[in-house]
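Hey, can you fold this one?
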Amino acid sequence: MSCHASHPAEMSLSPSAPFMLPAGAASELHVGVRPLVSGTRFLYVNVVDSEYHQLLRSWLICVNTRPPNITKVRLLLHL
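Sure. Predicted structure:
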């Protein structure tokens, strides 16, 4: 099995290398998302059988982000 992200620049998957799924056991897939722009984004995670090149599972991830609320600004001087 191998996992693929629709937007690899914005999403990291672990395990990133191909792996085996044991029968009857639960497995974990860790997904990290770091959007490059604010707003609503739809990202896909696809799990593919590496041997037969078949799509096994696909998940749609909806991310809604906004810019951070800046409360303080400081001026830094270089000497």
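The mean pLDDT is 89. Let me know if you want another pass with a different chain boundary.
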